[in-house]
Design goal:
Blueprint lengths: L2 H11 L14 H18 L7 E4 L4 E3 L16 H10 L6 E8 L2 E7 L1 H12 L7 E5 L4 H12 L7 H14 L5 H8 L3 H11 L3 H5 L9 H7 L6 H22 L8 H12 L10 E4 L5 E7 L2 E5 L6 H13 L3
Helix pairs in contact: 1-2, 3-4, 6-8, 8-10, 11-12
Length: about 325
């Protein structure tokens, strides 16, 4: 291939980057044309997709108000692994997903990447001004944004069951017309699995407040507590106990008491829902002349009298008279 032909190919293919696996060859013209031609083919066939990433000031990004993570629960402690990773690498490795917005105090809305946003913001606050927030801008509808955030965070242990449940409860109304089945199909999960999280989101606020933190409230807890709230009497006792525990948890957050852990909270609520039955004292027998007798148990401040079905009235009266004449 002549130098002139090489220059022509270079001009035509200048906008197509070589792939990482493309290495220089002695056949400078033909090899370069073939490899860049393959890159064009990949792009046209959809097998190769380029993404433009941006380094931005995290202060110009705000959380999407439908973000499935409660940003207020993020701390330097529960984001410590990410903070240390960014500091060690010298930068954020994986981009957050954002949408463009046109607001006075923000240019982007964060769909996925709340922890990364917190970590970079925290590092900047500690004097590491060189760190920027790595983002990928996408054009997404709200329903698409919800599904994208759910896919990214569904298997993550650092987002709590309750945060996920509240997100699902809101989404089923906003995007799926209240149809749980339609939402389950769209998320590719079972209807039973989704229903369990929606039940968690329906727990009364008094129950939620009884836990040390929303992050301690699990889907399994909802399954345990739901039956305790069905009957009015049981629900009244459970709610009363929950308020009592919530008051102690509030003091603990203020540093004035010890937290009640989640396991003990559930145990305490189960106990008041079904208080242990009072044991009957040993029975006393009062017999009539026929030899038949009635038995009497003390149950608290009451007496429980058991009379044989075939015992005749005079015999019953005689036995009862003995009971009243004696001491029980």
């Amino acid at each position: 291939m002549t130098k002139r032909h090489e220059d022509v190919f270079d001009a035509v293919l200048s906008g197509v980057p070589l792939r990482p696996e493309d290495k220089p060859s002695k056949d400078r013209g033909g090899a370069r044309f073939l490899k860049r031609g393959n890159a064009i083919s990949d792009r046209l066939s959809g097998e190769h997709e380029e993404k433009t990433l941006h380094w931005v000031d995290p202060a110009r990004c705000r959380m999407w108000d439908r973000h499935n993570r409660d940003y207020s629960l993020l701390t330097a402690e529960n984001c410590g692994d990410l903070i240390e990773g960014i500091r060690a690498q010298g930068r954020q490795e994986f981009p957050a997903i954002v949408r463009r917005i046109d607001e006075a105090d923000a240019d982007y809305e964060v769909i996925c990447g709340a922890r990364r946003h917190f970590a970079v913001t925290w590092l900047q606050g500690q004097g590491y001004s060189q760190f920027k927030y790595l983002i990928e801008v996408r054009d997404l509808t709200n329903e698409e944004a919800f599904r994208l955030a759910d896919i990214e965070n569904r298997e993550r242990e650092d987002i709590s069951d309750y945060e996920r449940a509240v997100d699902y409860a809101s989404a089923v109304k906003l995007y799926y017309g209240g149809q749980q089945k339609a939402m389950a199909e769209r998320l590719e999960v079972s209807a039973v699995w989704l229903s369990r999280y929606l039940e968690l989101a329906r727990l009364p606020s008094e129950i939620v407040a009884a836990f040390p933190s929303k992050r301690d409230l699990r889907e399994l807890h909802a399954r345990t507590l739901k039956p305790l709230l069905k009957e009015a009497d049981s629900k009244m006792r459970v709610m009363g106990k929950a308020k009592e525990i919530a008051a102690q948890q509030a003091l603990a957050r203020a540093g004035k008491a010890q937290f009640v852990d989640a396991q003990k909270v559930v145990a305490a609520l189960k106990l008041v829902a079904s208080p242990p039955k009072q044991k009957l004292s040993s029975a006393k027998e009062y017999s009539a002349r026929s030899g038949q007798s009635i038995s009497v148990h003390r149950k608290g401040r009451a007496l429980q009298v058991t009379i044989p079905a075939n015992m005749k009235r005079p015999e019953v009266e005689a036995a009862l008279q003995k009971m009243m004449d004696g001491e029980f």
